């Protein structure tokens, strides 16, 4: 680590660490994007229009690594399998399917 400023014994320093975590929820059968988290925040503008203002993460929980999906105002068409994928540095490191039955 090199810094433009001199760092002396007894000083404090911030060491950089980029968060390359990306979490996406999709419909398993159609790959429709339900919700996306990247660059340290939810990306609601990238989700499919059917899920605007209905699908989101609880921001307090994402800080603890919990990316459970909250889906409001359920519709008959919401029934089915949802897939959560976690990426680190463009590589999928976790994938899990959850079936929603109404």
UniProtKB/TrEMBL annotation:
<keyword id="KW-1133">Transmembrane helix</keyword>
<keyword id="KW-0393">Immunoglobulin domain</keyword>
<feature type="domain" description="Ig-like">
    <location>
        <begin position="1"/>
        <end position="101"/>
    </location>
</feature>
<keyword id="KW-0472">Membrane</keyword>
<dbReference type="InterPro" id="IPR036179">
    <property type="entry name" value="Ig-like_dom_sf"/>
</dbReference>
<keyword id="KW-0325">Glycoprotein</keyword>
<dbReference type="Pfam" id="PF07686">
    <property type="entry name" value="V-set"/>
</dbReference>
<keyword id="KW-0812">Transmembrane</keyword>
<dbReference type="GO" id="GO:0005886">
    <property type="term" value="C:plasma membrane"/>
</dbReference>
<dbReference type="InterPro" id="IPR013783">
    <property type="entry name" value="Ig-like_fold"/>
</dbReference>
<keyword id="KW-0732">Signal</keyword>
<dbReference type="InterPro" id="IPR013106">
    <property type="entry name" value="Ig_V-set"/>
</dbReference>
<keyword id="KW-1015">Disulfide bond</keyword>
<dbReference type="GO" id="GO:0050863">
    <property type="term" value="P:regulation of T cell activation"/>
</dbReference>
<dbReference type="InterPro" id="IPR007110">
    <property type="entry name" value="Ig-like_dom"/>
</dbReference>
<keyword id="KW-0675">Receptor</keyword>
<dbReference type="GO" id="GO:1903037">
    <property type="term" value="P:regulation of leukocyte cell-cell adhesion"/>
</dbReference>
<protein>
    <recommendedName>
        <fullName>Ig-like domain-containing protein</fullName>
    </recommendedName>
</protein>
<keyword id="KW-1003">Cell membrane</keyword>
<dbReference type="InterPro" id="IPR051713">
    <property type="entry name" value="T-cell_Activation_Regulation"/>
</dbReference>
